[in-house]
Amino acid sequence: MEAYEKLKQLVEEVSEDVYKAVGGNKAAGTRVRKAMQDIKNAAQEVRKQILDLRTDDE
Questions:
Q1: What is the value of pTM for the model shown?
Q2: By the 8 A CB rule, do 28 and 21 touch?
Q3: Domain housing 30
């Protein structure tokens, strides 16, 4: 599933900035917050596609 792979990629890309943000880097914190919004949207897309698969089977 392409949407799921995109979600995994987004999480992997932000991991380094998460540690920088925890260390006090404010710019990294800003990048993490933006990435979390993108992750939220990607997760919603995965959720929608899974729901579509379920309703197609019924």
A1: 0.85
A2: yes
A3: 2-57
